[in-house]
Amino acid sequence: MNMLVTPPKTTDAAGPRLARALPGLTEPERLVLSNLPAVTRFVRRNTTLAHEAQPLDRLRLFISGWAKRSVGIGPERQQVLGFVLPGDLDGLVADYRQAAPADVVTLTRCETVEFSLFELLHLTQDYPGIGAALRAYLADEAAILGDQVLRLGRMSAYERVIHLMLELFDRQALGAPDGTRVDFPITQSLVADALGLSVVHVNRQVMRLRKEGLVRLDRRSLTVLNFAKLQSLSGYRTRIRERAPDLASARAS
Amino acid sequence: MNMLVTPPKTTDAAGPRLARALPGLTEPERLVLSNLPAVTRFVRRNTTLAHEAQPLDRLRLFISGWAKRSVGIGPERQQVLGFVLPGDLDGLVADYRQAAPADVVTLTRCETVEFSLFELLHLTQDYPGIGAALRAYLADEAAILGDQVLRLGRMSAYERVIHLMLELFDRQALGAPDGTRVDFPITQSLVADALGLSVVHVNRQVMRLRKEGLVRLDRRSLTVLNFAKLQSLSGYRTRIRERAPDLASARAS
DNA sequence: CGAGTGATTGATCTTTCTCAACCCAGGTGG
DNA sequence: CCACCTGGGTTGAGAAAGATCAATCACTCG
Q1: Backbone angles phi, psi at B3, to 5 degrees
Q2: Could you tell me which chain A residue has the CA closest to the CA of B123?
Q3: Contact at CB, A195 and B153, closer than 8 angstroms
Q4: Would B8-150 and B156-234 be classified into the same CATH topology?
Q5: Within an 8 Å CB–CB cutoff, is residue B11 touching chain A?
Q6: Which of the listed CATH numbers 3.50.50.60, 3.40.50.970, 1.10.10.10, 3.50.40.10 matches domain B156-234?
Q7: % of chain B with per-residue pLDDT over 90
Q8: Domain extents for chain A?
Q9: Do A97 and B155 touch (CB under 8 A)?
């Protein structure tokens, strides 16, 4: 399914992006990551990149576009574990579990960069800082998953919607002032699958938030109009870590 | 609060336990872990070992007893993210996040072994296999958290209770035949906080499972009477990895 | 222009919660 | 030894959040 658009080796543009996605690397570590062979791909919307329970041997860095991680239960039910945003990695957990823990499906057209997991992990032997960065990345992912549990367990539908919006806001524009617009290329039906709610009920919460003047939401973007208020309504606490200097600016022209 | 019962250094008994908790280590790696200084502690029931948002500098291995990871939201609401069982580690995520992502509270009297996180991570520089094992451990934890999301998002109360029981069964007696009894030292109220349900409703599901002859459950133990049936009822899939040769046999006499 | 997707709203039904008892076992103080 | 107290479990009844069913609308795309 995936369309390979660029030639197999685009070493010069891709490596630095990976180095940028991982926190706290030293200069030599960044350098060696930059030289890691990489393949840039452009993937259509609605493409399954990884099947649940199917082993993966490559690490995928998202440059642009969104994806979801989801698990199907029964014919009509699916649970979205979380969203993959530009700058996020996918495929790191797979190696240790021998199988991807969930399906990964693109929600928009995506630009991704693929690395050999084997080669990357081999580097950790000589560059322990890379191993540490990978652990830090896993810890970040766990924190985000923990927030997902928080939402689903004890929060009302209203709180869940707010909490998720704030997370997705923070992951794109941490600390930005009220009125900032961020991407929101997902349907309400997808939000419902993430929050364990029906589409209808999600819509009612969104309508309510609009009437209250707390957010603006159209087909592709979200504007948070009163972060502080939303924060106190949902008990949201930032767990997102500041990312290295912005990823987007490093995109191929 | 914690009572220090044993003398500060019990190097000979504790280290091997840590080596045993981590998957796929080589012999020299096991050896060096065995020599890591360690402190054995016996902790009373209901002791908070780690506060949310408070940094941690030590890794804690549970030898016996259970604990919970929980996050409070509001005065009366708490969400249990998961349970810590004998053989599990706590404190690994903390270092990378600078803060524990949740409270850790003992549910029974616990025997734990503490290691310096700094010293352990220092070892990863010379023994990359240890770093890999830590990543594998983090990946395992993420898989268990993912299952928790699955339960909370799209499952009925009945399914949630079954699914959790099977997870806790597998984590103690993976692959054991029907009729096997495992520890279950947690109250229904705690199960409710884990599954995002009210105590009353949890009780109704438990009653139902008893009437249907699928499980036996008393104050401290759970007997799974028909694993296959329960599995198909809840869609449960084993994600637990086989542990190294049993931990209990290594306990100090 | 017709088809399909996603959003929106109303009406009704179901699951789960909340409140309120009551029971039982184990521990404690007199 | 007993009366009492407490934590946990069990059950019933009414209330509420959220699901389901159904219909309409706006928009995009071939």
Answers
A1: -95, 125
A2: A128
A3: yes
A4: no
A5: no
A6: 1.10.10.10
A7: 60
A8: 8-150, 156-234
A9: no
Given B125, B142, B194, which is nearest A142 (Cβ)? B142
Model confidence band, residue B4 (pLDDT cutoffs 50, 70, 90): very low
Q: Any residues with CB less than 8 A from the CB of B52 and at least 6 apart, and which?
A: B71, B72, B99, B100, B101, B102, B103
Of all residues in chain A, what percent carry a pLDDT higher than 90? Answer: 61
CATH numeric code, A8-150: 2.60.120.10
Overall pTM surpassing 0.85 (yes/no): yes
Report long-range pairs for A70-74 (Cβ below 8 Å, ≥24 apart): A70/A102, A70/A103, A70/A105, A70/A193, A71/A101, A71/A102, A71/A103, A71/B146, A71/B150, A72/A103, A73/B150, A73/B154, A73/B155, A73/B235, A74/B235
Model confidence at A2: pLDDT above 80 = no
Statement: residue A96 has pLDDT above 70? no
B121 inside 8 A of chain A by CB: yes
Given a cut of 80, is residue A180 above it in pLDDT?
A: yes
| For residues B209-229, average pLDDT | 95
Q: What is the pLDDT of residue A243?
A: 59
**Which residues touch B195 (CB under 8 Å, ≥6 apart)?**
A153, B151, B152, B157, B160, B161, B164, B202
Whether residue B96 and residue A141 make contact (CB cut-off 8 A), yes or no, is no
